[in-house]
Amino acid sequence: MSGSGPFQDKMSLRVEQLSLSRGERLLARDLSFEVQAGSYVEIRGGNGTGKTTLLRAIGGYFRPREGRIVFEGVEEPSLALHYVGHLNGLKGGASVRSHLRYWAGLFGVVGEEENALQRLGLRAQADLPARVLSQGQSRRLALTRLVLAPRLLWLLDEPAAGLDAQGKAMLADLISAHCSAGGIALAAVHEPIGPTPTRVLTVGA
Amino acid sequence: MSAFAATFRRELSLMWAGGGALTPLGYFFGATLLVPLAMGPERALLAVAGPPLIWIAAALAMLATLERLFQADLEDGSLDQMLLSPAPLEALTLAKGLALWCVVGLPLALAAAPAAIALQAPVELVPAIVASLALGTAAFAGIGLVGAALTAGVRRGGVLIALIVLPFFAPPIIFGAAVAGGEQVGSAMALVAGCALGAAALGPIAAAAALRLQAE
């Protein structure tokens, strides 16, 4: 299976009257929206308005107190999504290549490691331990997961953080290719990161 | 490569790169070899009281390795990725426990041979002591998974882990010390094996449940 689809299944995502809270504090109330296959949605909102909480709720990391998140066209949502959050999920002592090998095993895919390194421009760093990577390179390494295992829904939390111009262009290409193959990308961002969003969602305004 | 194998392999290499069994072994030898110095050179006294102390030293050495087991995964975001794997989280925690046993538990069991001799255990009992510790450290690893998972989100959770885990370390220590003391070796060994199997079966399940809550 190639990293850029096209996907056989069409999925859609529907959020119904979702209320988000962090601790005791209510962040958003009655949030409802629908996302169709092939969409790129930008989630905007100031600091602490619940962008990350929304992405993690969709990712299934916790059950929202009120409201529903409905996936159509997929059986097991957690196997159909990627989550790239603030934390890159790297181990300082392990090399770039061994991270890819581990993720490939973890996600049950084979053979895309070299392609993923190529697409994110990490070829030259493949044998370095993650500890010596810069912030932008660490972020690129986290983004290789998107190429490594093709999954329909991408949940990206400030994916461009730390990336240089070239890295941002690579990310924009990845998102465009993913959406034109029928995937969905949801990105929490503060400023546009390249691809034209199908819609812009503002939380906690 | 399956998710289980990938996790096991990664944990082995990370634990190995992080010093492997060096620290727990150093602790274990330090504790067991100080006993003859503290208790004096009287062989009869040492032969009675010494060998069971191997179990205390092994339990504490293993305890010291638990704090970072899942805390690191929670802090660096690895746990979020583990939850997106097609493999159940229980299988991944089992892989981590197995790696811990291979890197720390088995070396401790082997190190028990020289320690037992230094503590005046009868030489014919040494193989039984090593075997019982191999089983006992598996029990410690299984129980330790749960303590480590429950305290993954707690800063300096080491003391808390000890409070949670040490009561459950009691059964393998009781039966293991019986093996080391040379009383009813066969049945005591069977009971240690039972503890190991129970901990290996239930530990990963309980640890996975605790980790799912931590991911919130």
Helical stretch count of chain B?
A: 9
| Count of all domains of chain B | 1
What structural class do the secondary elements of chain A suggest? Answer: alpha/beta
Query: Which stretches of chain B are low in confidence, meaning pLDDT under 50 for 5 or more residues running?
Result: none
Shape summary of chain B: elongated
Biggest beta sheet attributes of chain B: none
Per CATH, the class of the largest domain in chain A reads Alpha Beta
| CATH topology call of the largest domain in chain A | Rossmann fold
Please outline the major beta sheet of chain A: 5 strands, parallel
Question: Could you describe the 3D structure shown?
Answer:
The complex is a heterodimer of chains A (205) and B (216). Chain A has 205 residues and is of the alpha/beta class. Chain A contains five helices and eight strands, in the order βββαββαααβαββ. In chain A, the strands form two sheets. In chain A, strands 5-6-7-3-8 form a five-stranded parallel sheet, sandwiched between helices. The mean pLDDT of chain A is 90. Chain B has 216 residues and is mainly α. In chain B, 82% of the residues lie in helices and 0% in strands. Chain A binds chain B through residues 59-62, 78-79, 81-83, 85-91, 93-94, 98, 101-108, 145, and chain B through 1-3, 5-7, 9-10, 13-14, 17-18, 72, 75-78, 80-87, 92, 215-216.
At a glance:
The complex is a heterodimer of chains A (about 200) and B (about 220). Chain A has helices at about 50-60, 95-105, 115-120, 135-150, 165-180, and strands spanning about 10-20, 25-35, 40-45, 65-70, 80-85, 155, 185-190, 200.
